[in-house]
What we know:
The structure holds 2 protein chains of 2 kinds. Chain A is an all-beta fold.
Amino acid sequence: NAGVTQTPKFQVLKTGQSMTLQCAQDMNHEYMSWYRQDPGMGLRLIHYSVGAGITDQGEVPNGYNVSRSTTEDFPLRLLSAAPSQTSVYFCASSSLGETQYFGPGTRLLVL
Amino acid sequence: SQKIEQNSEALNIQEGKTATLTCNYTNYSPAYLQWYRQDPGRGPVFLLLIRENEKEKRKERLKVTFDTTLKQSLFHITASQPADSATYLCALMAGANNLFFGTGTRLTVIP
């Protein structure tokens, strides 16, 4: 099992550019989520999904889109990157009601 | 507003001593409380989960308590080792499997 994988590991964007952060899991978990981690702020939930075709907003969803067409994949899209989106992004997955497994993270720098 | 506070940003202790980390929360009624370990440049790794009807949980040198009246959890590492040095995060589970994190305590165990 690869667990939760994220690509890319690191990305630099210019303001206004768009990009997709990829997340995949091979544990057949129903639940997947995206967090961002900023110094002094802790991890904050962006979007989550409880199954294919079902997504919902977390605490800080503005500027991000998600979709869940398969159980395995949960990409996060930045539509028009802003410097405030400079952060480390973590994807996580779990069975419902169980502990979450996190990916290694994507470091994003928006200039 | 909802808040999760971990008592200190950083904690230094001598090898062999017991480290005690505190997590306090307000305006939540969590079903579960979880503790994660995060090493620099990596995603959080699950350590322990304690349910609202449990007072204490142990795993090897780790012990977690959960007091829903005080709205507090204590996380203990006994016989601490330099390899225990990391950031420890508490997280409350509420809603559809969603986790809400504290900002973390960076533990350094001094040989």
